[in-house]
Automatic annotation (TrEMBL):
<dbReference type="InterPro" id="IPR051814">
    <property type="entry name" value="NAD(P)H-dep_FMN_reductase"/>
</dbReference>
<dbReference type="InterPro" id="IPR005025">
    <property type="entry name" value="FMN_Rdtase-like_dom"/>
</dbReference>
<protein>
    <submittedName>
        <fullName>NADPH-dependent FMN reductase</fullName>
    </submittedName>
</protein>
<dbReference type="InterPro" id="IPR023932">
    <property type="entry name" value="CE1759_FMN_reduct"/>
</dbReference>
<keyword id="KW-0560">Oxidoreductase</keyword>
<keyword id="KW-0288">FMN</keyword>
<dbReference type="InterPro" id="IPR029039">
    <property type="entry name" value="Flavoprotein-like_sf"/>
</dbReference>
<feature type="domain" description="NADPH-dependent FMN reductase-like">
    <location>
        <begin position="3"/>
        <end position="149"/>
    </location>
</feature>
<keyword id="KW-0285">Flavoprotein</keyword>
<dbReference type="GO" id="GO:0016491">
    <property type="term" value="F:oxidoreductase activity"/>
</dbReference>
<dbReference type="Pfam" id="PF03358">
    <property type="entry name" value="FMN_red"/>
</dbReference>
Amino acid sequence: MTTVVAITAGLSETSSTRLLTDRLVESLGRQTGDVSVEIVALRELAHDVVDATLTGFASPRLQDALDKVAAADGLIVATPIYKASYPGLFKSFFDVMETDAVIGKPVLLAATAGTARHSLAIEHTLRPLFAYMQALVVPTGVFASTHDWGAEGAQALEQRIDRATAELASLLKGAGTGRSRDDEFDLFSETFRSIAEGPRA
């Protein structure tokens, strides 16, 4: 079975970031029935992440989360945006991760914020980070501000969610089938091209 880890970086116990993560997971489940998703909440690992940053050693609990990310076929990554960027906890988690943990791995990026002023944060902060880590980031990022949870923005948000998870599901089709890294990049190129061209007449 294809495995996906959903990393959610909301700092409060109940957050719009976790809500968006859950919506993405539900949508992915509708896109493909043959997927197992595990959620990693960084809030629960905050002290472990700080300790690993200072000592260079991961606690068993943090190491288990890092191992799950490295073993997953794909990732959903959701973070809140503060002052035009992701919080330190989010960055620190990826700082303590092995540098090759997500090479060639399909990744869906999502972010939440209180205002649409942060709507480009996925493009200017998240996407460069995962490009550096050599992940296969799906074309559609999912951003949700306070407006998107209301009646006026809900439909557009749902469309973005479904589009992004469809792109992730397309890339995951090749996961766990013995494809080489070159094959995965070819699959990504084909997926991106088909999305850009739109449905055939």
